[in-house]
Amino acid sequence: MTRSQISESAQRTRRLTMSAMYATLALIFTYVEFLIPYSVGIPGVKLGLANLVIIIALYEMDFRYAMAINLMRIALSGLLFSGIFAMFYSLAGGVISLIIMWLLMKTGKFSMIGVSMAGGVAHNMGQLLVAAFVVSNIKMFVYFPVLVFSGIGAGICIGIVAYVIDKRVPKQLFK
């Protein structure tokens, strides 16, 4: 093997290892959030702790790795904690959210906090679309205003923490 082949192989191994660690951390955050009793009275309102890991992976790795981490977390948390049916809600919210965050991040016009806010709203919208489809009732969108505000609030909280982590943790740890 040449030196460049070794370094390329080492880089792939490092990124795979980082992806596994991110997926594990996201799964732990999902479990912690699963244990928190939310008594807001509105389905779907939660902080979205796992999105902290996803947004950092999006900024520090790339879209493909962030999507792989997100899909691993959704599949494993569905199988371990919430069930197959809830996995579809998470899948819709998680994929739509990540795509929106990636598109906004690519423009360079939004801060990490703004990207996270949009991700929170997109996640709730994705889940609401699935809910409306499952119950075949457009009236599900009566929850939309509340879910927009909760998505913005959660996005701000997660975005601030992600921003602080991004600025304070040495970049060498992510590469």
UniProtKB/TrEMBL annotation:
<dbReference type="InterPro" id="IPR014535">
    <property type="entry name" value="Hpre_diP_synt_I"/>
</dbReference>
<dbReference type="Pfam" id="PF07456">
    <property type="entry name" value="Hpre_diP_synt_I"/>
</dbReference>
<keyword id="KW-0812">Transmembrane</keyword>
<feature type="transmembrane region" description="Helical">
    <location>
        <begin position="110"/>
        <end position="135"/>
    </location>
</feature>
<feature type="transmembrane region" description="Helical">
    <location>
        <begin position="142"/>
        <end position="165"/>
    </location>
</feature>
<keyword id="KW-0472">Membrane</keyword>
<feature type="transmembrane region" description="Helical">
    <location>
        <begin position="47"/>
        <end position="67"/>
    </location>
</feature>
<feature type="transmembrane region" description="Helical">
    <location>
        <begin position="79"/>
        <end position="104"/>
    </location>
</feature>
<keyword id="KW-1133">Transmembrane helix</keyword>
<dbReference type="InterPro" id="IPR010898">
    <property type="entry name" value="Hpre_diP_synth_I"/>
</dbReference>
<feature type="transmembrane region" description="Helical">
    <location>
        <begin position="20"/>
        <end position="41"/>
    </location>
</feature>
<protein>
    <submittedName>
        <fullName>Heptaprenyl diphosphate synthase</fullName>
    </submittedName>
</protein>
